[in-house]
């Protein structure tokens, strides 16, 4: 059997070509180039499969590599048979090439439905466009959400530090401002004074005219305080009918002058009901190493002193 396979005594193809150099050149160069190409293509396919483990159809690549490789062998045998007639070997190579070719064709036809499901370049471009559009929409949504969150945060912060009735600072906010101002004034040795204001006979107003009227009067008083004070001052509702005013960079004399102006402005108010409005104001100036509790107590004690002296007046803590 091996003798038949390696029997090269058959007439070579060169006799068919009459050993003409031009025909020999065409056939030999064509077979050499084809055999080299058919050798390089399978190597490239095998290298591709080894480097890309994500390929879905890696076996079909290997099958193509075998098919192309055997085609190269047939061309190589055709090249040899120009000088030596190894037709059994060539026939065996062609048979093997035919078997692997038909196998490749069958497998390829079976894979066509799956291959058709793969997205085309146009479809991929459309999907990329849709993803880009969706990404831009998400970015706009995120920007909108961030803006809404910031707005809601500001609203919550405003609610947390604003008195809902008078729309000025609430007790928490005004005390926080006072702590910061005391710390700043102590560090830089600056003056700082506070006014504690209490509306006189406010319980009688509520009892005689109702709480709605009392609330309206508190709102008007808060507006009067805000308009009477400087932009650098802080005005807050301390609780009930009490208000706390922080006077930055202000000594005792200036604080007394501002307190008198506030007292006069409140006395000049004309509420919607037939009643007179007055207030008692306690004034305290920050001393060295004094804390917030001590400062507020001084102002509060001055308020009670003003009430004991007949109300509608201001009292300085230093003068008690």
With strands numbered from the N-terminus, the spatial order across the biggest sheet is 2-3-1-4-5
Catalogue the unreliable spans: none
Q: Roughly how much helix do the residues carry, as a percent range?
A: 55-70%
**Count of helices?**
11
Tally of DSSP β-strands: 5
Structural class, judged by helices and strands?
alpha+beta
Mean pLDDT over all positions? 89
Global geometry: rod-shaped
SSE topology string: HHHHHHHEHHEEHEHE
Using the CA coordinates, give the radius of gyration.
50 Å
**Biggest β-sheet, characterized?**
5 strands, mixed
Our estimate of the beta-strand percent is 5-15%
Distance between the termini: 133 Å
Plain-language structure description:
- The chain is an alpha+beta fold.
- The chain is 66% helix and 10% strand.
- The chain has 11 helices and 5 strands.
- The chain has helices at 2-5, 13-16, 21-51, 58-80, 87-117, 121-161, 171-188, 202-209, 211-228, 252-267, 292-308, and strands at 192-199, 234-239, 242-248, 279-285, 314-316.
- It has a 5-stranded mixed β-sheet, sandwiched between helices.
- Helix 3 packs antiparallel against helix 4, helix 4 runs antiparallel to helix 5 (87-117) and helix 8 (202-209) packs across helix 9.
- The chain is rod-shaped.
């Amino acid at each position: 059997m091996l003798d038949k396979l390696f029997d090269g005594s058959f007439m070579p193809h060169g006799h068919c070509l009459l050993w003409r150099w031009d025909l020999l050149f065409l056939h030999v160069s064509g077979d050499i180039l084809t055999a080299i190409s058919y050798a390089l293509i399978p190597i490239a396919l095998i290298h591709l499969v080894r480097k890309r483990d994500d390929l879905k159809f890696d076996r079909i690549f290997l099958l193509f590599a075998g098919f192309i490789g055997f085609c190269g062998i047939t061309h190589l045998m055709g090249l040899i048979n120009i000088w030596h007639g190894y037709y059994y070997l060539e026939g065996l190579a062609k048979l093997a090439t035919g078997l692997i070719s038909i196998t490749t064709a069958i497998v390829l036809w079976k894979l066509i439905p799956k291959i058709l499901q793969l997205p085309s370049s146009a479809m991929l471009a459309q999907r990329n466009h849709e993803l880009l559009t969706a990404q831009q929409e998400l970015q706009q949504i995120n920007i909108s959400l961030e803006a809404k969150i910031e707005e809601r945060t500001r609203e919550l912060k405003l609610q947390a530090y604003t008195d809902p009735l008078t729309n000025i600072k609430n007790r928490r906010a005004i005390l926080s401002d006072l702590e910061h101002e005391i710390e700043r004034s102590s560090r830089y040795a600056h003056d700082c004074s506070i006014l504690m204001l209490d509306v006189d006979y406010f319980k009688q107003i509520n009892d005689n005219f109702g709480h709605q009227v009392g609330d309206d009067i508190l709102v008007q008083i808060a507006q009067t305080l805000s308009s009477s004070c400087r932009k650098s001052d802080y005005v807050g509702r301390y609780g009930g009918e009490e208000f706390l005013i922080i006077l930055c960079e202000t000594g005792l004399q200036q604080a007394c002058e501002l307190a008198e102006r506030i007292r006069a402005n409140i006395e000049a108010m004309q509420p919607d009901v037939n009643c007179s409005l007055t207030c008692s104001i306690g004034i305290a100036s920050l001393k060295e190493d004094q804390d917030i509790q001590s400062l507020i107590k001084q102002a509060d004690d001055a308020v009670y002193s003003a009430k004991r002296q007949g109300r509608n007046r201001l009292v300085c803590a230093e003068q008690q």
